[in-house]
Design goal:
The structure holds two protein chains of two kinds. Chain A contains ten helices and nine strands. Chain A has a single domain, classed as Rossmann fold (3-Layer(aba) Sandwich). Chain A is of the alpha/beta class. Helix content of chain A is 40%, strand content 26%. Chain A starts with a strand and ends with a helix. Chain B has one domain (23-280). Chain B contains 13 helices and no strands. Chain B has helices at residues 11-15, 27-41, 44-48, 51-68, 81-98, 101-113, 116-120, 126-156, 168-191, 200-212, 227-232, 235-247, 251-280. Chain B is globular and about 75 Å long. Chain B starts with 10 loop residues before the first helix and ends in an 8-residue tail after the last helix. In chain B, 38% of the residues are buried. The chains are: A alpha/beta, B mainly alpha.
Chain lengths: 278, 288
C-alpha cells in the first residue's frame, strides 16, 4: 500500500528581481520585475508504507518545496498529492495527526520548557489523553534514552540531546509517515550514528515510513533502501540503493579506488549541472 | 460527562490505532496559553522594566490635565479632572499591558521568514495559536500594569469617581474583550503579509489610530461630527469602551459596549479566518 503518492507535481515561485546599485533600487520601485522559478517540475513518485526513502539533491533542487507540498504547507500549482489517502491541500489538519516532521535547522520544542513538559504539550496538541501521553513518554524515554535530561529545560541541552527530543516530540502521536529534513545537521559523528540507529529502530518497531532529505551521505547509506535524486525541480534518478551501487561498480575500473556512495552522488550532481548548464 | 473518550475520535484514526484521544474543544489552545504563561512568568522582572515608561507617561498627563482643569469641578467633554486622568491611566494600562510581540510582530515575521511553514503542520489553527500565545503574554503583563495603575492613581489622583467593587467583574470582562478584539484585528492586518511583503506599516497606522483617538483622549474630545465615525471603528471597543466604563459606569452604557464588543469580536474572527484561508494559499516559502 502506498503511503505517499505524488503525480505530476509542479510549483512555481515568483521572485522579485532587482538590478544592482541605487539606480536598480529606484527602478525596482517604479517598474518592479519578477521572474518565475520552477521549483518543482512535474514530479511523480510513490512511497510504500514502511519504506525508508532518501529524497536528495543539491541546494535549490526543490526537496523542501516538495516536502512542504506533501505536508500541506504549500499548495501545488498543478498535480495531485495523496499522503495516507488524504489530500494535504484539502485536509491538512487531518493529515497532521498522521504525520510527523523534523526539520534539523528549525526547532519545534519550546526552549523554556523541559522535554517532559514539551512532550505533554505536544500530546495535548495531538488530542491525546494525559494517560496516553504519559504511556508514550515512558516508552519513548526508554527507547531514546532521555532519562538523564528529560527534566532539564531544552535551552540547556546539547544539540544532540535536543535533536533526540525533537524526534520524540514528532513521534508522540505515533505518526505513520515521518518527514526528516536534515535531521543530523551539525551533529558529531557519534551522535549522528545514534540518531540513525533510532530512526532505524522507529521504522523497524513501528513500521513508520521515513521520508528523508539530507546532504549527509552517511544518513542516506545507512538508513535508506531507495533513493530519489532531484535537480532543478525534476527527478533525475529513482532507484534502489542496491541497484545504484551495482550499476556504478563498472566505473570502478576507471577509478583508482572503489566508488563510494558519495562519489556516485557527486557524479550524478555534476552530470546534471552540465546538462542543465548551471 | 467525560469527553475524553474514544467515541469522539475520528473513525479513520481509531482504525489506525492512534490511541485514546481527548477532543475537548479549545484544549490545545489552553495548553498553548499555559506554556506561554509559564514562559512569561520567568520574565516578570523584564516586564516590570516597562513600568518606568508608563509612570513617566502618566505623570506628564496628570500634570497636563491639572494645568488644563483650572477650577475644581470643571467638566471637559463631560469628564471631571479625576475621570479624565483615570481614563488615560486605564487606556494606557491596556496599551502597555497588551502591547506584546505575538500579534504585533510575530505573524508578519513568520510569514516573511517562512517560519509559518513549521507552525502550520500541526493540528491547530495558526491564527488561534497566535491568539492563545498572545493571551498568555498579556495575562501576565496586564495585571501587573493594572496593579501599577491602581497604586499610581490612588497615590496621585485619589479613588476612581463612583467606583463600586460589584462592577469590577464586568469591567474586567470588558477589558479582556477589548484586548482580544485588538489582537484579532492586528492578526488580520498581519495576515496581509501573505499578499504584500510587509504589513508592518499598516500595523503602525492602526496602532497610531488607536493611540491618538481613544487612548490619549476620549472620543468626546473630538468634534461632534467625527464621533459617530470613531464609534464605528475598533477604537470604541478596544480602549474607549472599557476605560469609559471604569471611570463612568452606567448599566445601559455597559450593555451597549458589551454588545458592540461581542459583535466586533464575531466579525473580527470571521474576517481573520477568511483572510487566513485565502492567504495561506498564497504562501510563498522557498528554500529549506
Amino acid at each position: 500500500m502506498y503511503a505517499i503518492k505524488a503525480e505530476d507535481l509542479s510549483k512555481t515561485f515568483r521572485v522579485k528581481v532587482k538590478e544592482k546599485g541605487m539606480k536598480g533600487s529606484v527602478r525596482a520601485i517604479l517598474h518592479p520585475q519578477v521572474k518565475e522559478i520552477q521549483a518543482v517540475d512535474n514530479v511523480s513518485f510513490s512511497v510504500e508504507e514502511g519504506e525508508m526513502l532518501a529524497f536528495i539533491g543539491p541546494n535549490g533542487a526543490g526537496k523542501s518545496t516538495t516536502i512542504k507540498m506533501l505536508t500541506g504547507i504549500l499548495y501545488p500549482d498543478s498535480g495531485k498529492v495523496d499522503v495516507l489517502g488524504i489530500d494535504p491541500t484539502k485536509n491538512r489538519k487531518q493529515l497532521a495527526y498522521c504525520i510527523g516532521t523534523v526539520f534539523g535547522q528549525k526547532e519545534q520544542l519550546w526552549t523554556h520548557l523541559t522535554p517532559y513538559d514539551n512532550f505533554r504539550f505536544f500530546g495535548a496538541i495531538y488530542d491525546l489523553t494525559d494517560k496516553e501521553t504519559e504511556m508514550r513518554i515512558a516508552e519513548l524515554k526508554e527507547c531514546f534514552e532521555l532519562g538523564a535530561f528529560i527534566n532539564t529545560p531544552v535551552r540547556n541541552l546539547s544539540l544532540g540531546q535536543r535533536i533526540r527530543c525533537e524526534l520524540v516530540a514528532s513521534l508522540i502521536h505515533r505518526p505513520r509517515v515521518l518527514f526528516l529534513d536534515e535531521p543530523t545537521i551539525g551533529l558529531d559523528p557519534v551522535v549522528k550514528e545514534n540518531i540513525r540507529e533510532l530512526i532505524h529502530q522507529m521504522n523497524r518497531d513501528y513500521h513508520t515510513t521515513i521520508f528523508l532529505t539530507s546532504h549527509d551521505v552517511g544518513d542516506i547509506e545507512k538508513l535508506c533502501r531507495r533513493i530519489i535524486i532531484v535537480n532543478a525541480g525534476q527527478i533525475v534518478l529513482d532507484d534502489s540503493m542496491e541497484h545504484l551501487k551495482k550499476c556504478y561498480l563498472e566505473k570502478e575500473n576507471v577509478h583508482s579506488s572503489p566508488l563510494s556512495l558519495e562519489d556516485i552522488i557527486m557524479d550524478i550532481y555534476r552530470a546534471e549541472r552540465r546538462a542543465t548548464g548551471e | 460527562m467525560n469527553r475524553c473518550m474514544k467515541k469522539g475520535m475520528p473513525g479513520q484514526l481509531r482504525q489506525q490505532g492512534y490511541g485514546e484521544m481527548c477532543r475537548v474543544p479549545g484544549r490545545k489552545y489552553a495548553v498553548i496559553y499555559r506554556a506561554v504563561l509559564m514562559e512569561n512568568m520567568q520574565y516578570a522582572a523584564n516586564i516590570a522594566m516597562g513600568f518606568f515608561s508608563y509612570f513617566v507617561f502618566i505623570f506628564i498627563f496628570i500634570k497636563l490635565w491639572e494645568y488644563i482643569y483650572r477650577t475644581p469641578g470643571e467638566l471637559i467633554a463631560g469628564y471631571t479632572k479625576e475621570q479624565m486622568i483615570w481614563y488615560v491611566m486605564m487606556t494606557e494600562m491596556i496599551w502597555f499591558g497588551s502591547n506584546t510581540g505575538a500579534v504585533a510582530r510575530q505573524v508578519t515575521a513568520d510569514i516573511r521568514g517562512g517560519n509559518i511553514a513549521y507552525l502550520m503542520n500541526k493540528p491547530y489553527h495558526y491564527a488561534l495559536y497566535i491568539l492563545a500565545k498572545y493571551t498568555g503574554e498579556w495575562s501576565i503583563r496586564l495585571p501587573m500594569y493594572a496593579l501599577l495603575a491602581a497604586v499610581i492613581g490612588a497615590a496621585m489622583v485619589g479613588a476612581v469617581p463612583g467606583f463600586r467593587l460589584v462592577t469590577l467583574p464586568v469591567m474586567i470582562l470588558c477589558v479582556v474583550l477589548g484586548v482580544t478584539i485588538n489582537a484579532v484585528f492586528k492578526i488580520c492586518i498581519s495576515l496581509f503579509s501573505f499578499w504584500i511583503e510587509d504589513a508592518t506599516p499598516f500595523q503602525w497606522l492602526y496602532d497610531k489610530l488607536i493611540l491618538v483617538v481613544g487612548t490619549v483622549f476620549p472620543i468626546e474630545i473630538f468634534p461632534v461630527s467625527l464621533q459617530p465615525l470613531f464609534k464605528l471603528t475598533p477604537i470604541y471597543t478596544v480602549c474607549y469602551g472599557p476605560a469609559k466604563l471604569i471611570v463612568d459606569f452606567r448599566a445601559e452604557k455597559c450593555i451597549e459596549i458589551l454588545s458592540v464588543q461581542v459583535l466586533y469580536l464575531a466579525a473580527g474572527c470571521a474576517l481573520m479566518f477568511l483572510v487566513y484561508r485565502k492567504g495561506v494559499k498564497k504562501l510563498y516559502v522557498n528554500g529549506g
